[in-house]
Amino acid sequence: MTNNAILVVVDPPDPRGFVKDIPEPVVRLLRKMMAKDPEERCASTHELFEDVELVRMGQAPAGGEPQAGKATVLRAFKIEKARLDRMGNEVRTLEGKLRRNKRYLWASLAAAGALLAALVVVLVIIASS
Questions:
Q1: Which of 13, 30, 42, 123 is the one with CA 20 to 30 A from 106?
Q2: Is 96 within a domain?
Q3: 47 lies in a domain?
């Protein structure tokens, strides 16, 4: 039997035999990628990308018909991007407030130091009189 004949007859090994804690959706994607029948594998890199994104979102890879279509995945990406943009804006706003509060703190400490110095001068003048 040639190597090619072995590949057609022998089922691919279970990925969990190599790494125990692989999540089930990842195992299903790997099995789909190693399927003997070309009809069971991804037809294009675009389809593979969609399957990888489905797995990243916690879903199983598509089995023929996608569980979440391209529009659904793109909508999820747009929603996530908008959420990240809002969070980025909030972070920038909070960073600005933090910088402003630090300036106020240093100005308050400088004023308190000046008042303390003035108090010491007054006490020295009173004590020397």
A1: 123
A2: yes
A3: yes
Range of the domain at 16: 3-100
* Alpha carbons 16 and 28: distance in angstroms, whole number: 11
Q: Mean pLDDT, consecutive 10-residue segments, the chain of 129 residues?
A: 58 85 88 83 85 82 58 77 91 95 96 95 91
Rg (CA), the chain: 32
Give pLDDT, residue 68. 53
pTM beyond 0.70: no
User: How many independent structural domains does the chain possess?
Assistant: 1
Whole-number Å distance between alpha carbons of 38 and 47: 13
pLDDT value at position 7? 53
> Residue 40: what pLDDT?
82
80 belongs to a structural domain: yes
Is residue 76 assigned to a domain?
Answer: yes
Residue whose token pair is 């308050």: 108
